[in-house]
Amino acid sequence: MSRTSHPGPGRRSLLQAALTVPAVGAAGTVLGTQSAQAATGQPSTAGSGTHRFDTESPRFALAVLPDTQYLFDADSADPEPLKETFHYLVAQRQEANIAFMTHLGDVTEHGSEEEIDLAADTFRTIHGKVPYSVLAGNHDINSGTDDQRGDTAYLRAFGPQRFTSMPTFGGASPDGYNSYHVLRAAGREWLVLALDWRASEKGLAWAQGVLDTHPTLPVILTTHDIAWAEDNGQAHLSDNGQLLWDRIIRGNDQIFMALGGHYWPPGRTVLTNDAGHDVHVHITNYQDRYYGGAGRVRLYSFDLVRQVVDVETFSPWFLARDPEKRTPLEAETIELTGPVDRFSLDIDFADRFRAFAPVVPPAPRPASRVMPRGTVAYWRFDSSGLAGAGTAGTAVAAGTVARDLSGHGNDLRVQLLHDSPSKALTWSGDHHTEQPAHASLRFDGGKSPDRGAILTTSAQAPLNSLTFTSGFTIETFIKLPEPFEGDHAWMGILSWEGRNGDAGKTTGWSTEEPTCSLNVTPERFLQFVLYPHVQDADPTSWSHALPVGRWTHIAVVNNGHRTVMYVDGSKIARNPTRSATGIATLGKPFVIGGTQFAEQFDQGFYGWIGDTRIVNRALAPKDFMAPSA
Questions:
Q1: Dihedral angle sign, alpha carbons of residues 365, 369, 373, 376
Q2: Helix, strand, or coil here: 247?
Q3: What is the pLDDT of residue 17?
Q4: What's the DSSP call for residue 395?
Q5: Calpha distance 417→48 (Å, rounded)
Q6: Residue 539 phi, psi dihedral angles, 5° rounding
Q7: What are phi and psi of 64, to 5 degrees?
Q8: Which residues on adjacent β-strands are paired with residue 413?
Q9: Of 268, 321, 329, 366, whose CB is crowded by the most CB atoms within 10 A?
Q10: What 3-state DSSP class applies to 370?
Q11: What is the pLDDT of residues 64-118, one digit of tens each?
């Protein structure tokens, strides 16, 4: 599509980028994407040969390829840039976890049989290695026709017969110009709906039928002409885009993203559908750039953990060149970094898809399924572990017992600190989504005056004297309130009672500290302090500042030599390298909800604490109660 065919905005100048930085940015961002292992075990894969795709990873990429028409333009055609793009997507499929590629139309300049055949041959580079969709643009067919146009060179090359062998292919309209694919990524199914340059009434009815047949799938709609943009990148629906909006998009809440090419400059906007939800509308087209766009591709990297889609635009053809031999135009356009070419979309996927595909939370897991070999204590605060659990806000009285479900006799008993009221500890149904039990305890500890509640083992509990010289894993779930108000400095999550000085330790910060404790600092950093059974030392792990109003899984793992803290399955930076063998326990009670200093409990914990488990060996992150992806 020539930009001058639209009477709207003027031509946008080329983005000017640094000579060498874009190559680093493109390679670093794309190549650095890691395919995470599925939380439920080994990842399932899809693909061909060594080009594997992890269908269960919460992170995947959608490759979007806009107008390539100037690369297939009569006797000036040059398919090499597009071949390099395809080589790149195939080579990086596993590393970037590329689920699918979609072409936005105008594959060729004139739609001649020669151009179409050359393009079709070029697409064999990716065929069978990465699934893809293609749709007709106005340059691929007679632009004055709609999808009822009948036989064309385009249809013979890129009609339904080309896609039937793809596992993602769902079907095509009877005319053959509209199609859809269903792909599995991030543990769920997604639908890509590829509509012709001009969908007829029959085409629109077919598209609605596809949506009606797949009512729970989130949908990305692709077409050639949906929006144009001002020079500042602000996009507006075109006439055809308005038709698609009114007839298909606005009334189908499943469609959360609509992508088109045709016009330049690129742009984007967010529209509100009839359900009151966002629909992201984007224009991607670089045919006006150097070398007809040079096979430039856009990667939409979905991250369902961070709840974002990171978007980047680059040319693999330029990226593959020797940096010392790149021409100035190649170097400055390797990656485009303007606000319409490189950006992030914040999408709460569960909330956005809730109306048509509500997330079914995982069911509670019985205690027997979360006690691996070596479990010496496991406490949970639902009815299986805590008497009287069940009514949110109910006070948990002093003397209430939380049973050790491991069967090792390390039961906990509730104790109120100082003159704390009974509501210093209450039962809650709030919990981390991956927590085995769907329950927690709400601690209302604080200072001025010191108040709170703790749960302690009895004086005879076996846990009091275990030294863990072969290693250990301590896990718990916590949530800090939002807003985080009041004085809650250095509050304890769990610890063993007893002063490290009584264990003969002299090199630590203070001989009055307990021999092992997990605490929260005034800045909401986690602090895990350990006085080893063997060494005279106090190796301490420090986390980043914890978020408020959100559940966090914490795991501290010692392999008999070194201690490593994980937060939400990720290893933190400030783990000590000093040797630490075992815990210098003194036969004194284990405590949840506070830390004793100089044999005195000041304030108790402020927030929620959920399932807590101690294992007498080092566990791998995949074996945590909230398995690491």
A1: positive
A2: helix
A3: 30
A4: B
A5: 62
A6: -60, 130
A7: -120, 125
A8: 401, 456
A9: 268
A10: helix
A11: 999 999 999 999 999 999 999 999 999 999 999 999 999 999 999 999 999 999 9
Q: Say how far apart CA 497 and CA 281 lie, in whole Å.
A: 59
CA separation for the pair 505, 531 (Å, rounded) = 7
Q: Rounded to an integer, what distance in angstroms lies between the CA atom of residue 16 and that of residue 333?
A: 7
Is residue 126 very low, low, confident or very high in pLDDT (cuts 50, 70, 90)? very high
Sign of CA dihedral 353, 355, 361, 363: negative
User: What is the rounded (10 degree) CA torsion for 521, 573, 514, 579?
Assistant: -160
Cα–Cα distances in angstroms (integers) from residue 246 to residues 50, 239, 570, 603, in the given order: 44, 11, 45, 60
Q: Identify each DSSP E strand in 445-535 by its residue range.
A: 453-457, 472-479, 491-496, 516-520, 525-530
Residue 520 corresponds to which tokens in the numbers above? 């929260």
What tokens does 232 get? 């500042």
Element (H, E) at 91: helix 80-91
For 267-348, strand residue ranges (E) read: 267-272, 278-283, 297-303, 308-314, 335-336, 343-346
* Distance separating alpha carbons of residues 554 and 11, to the nearest angstrom: 53
DSSP assigned state of 194: E
For the whole model, what pTM was predicted? 0.74
Tokens 């800090």 correspond to 480
Of 479, 397, 483, the closest CA to residue 435 belongs to: 479
DSSP string, 12-71: PPPPP--SSHHHHHHHHHHHT---PPPTTSSPPEEEETTEEEESS-SEEEEEEE---GGG
The Cα 502–Cα 496 span in angstroms is 13
By C-alpha distance, which of 289, 151, 137 is closest to 223?
137
Q: Which helix or strand (DSSP H or E) is residue 443 part of?
A: strand 440-444
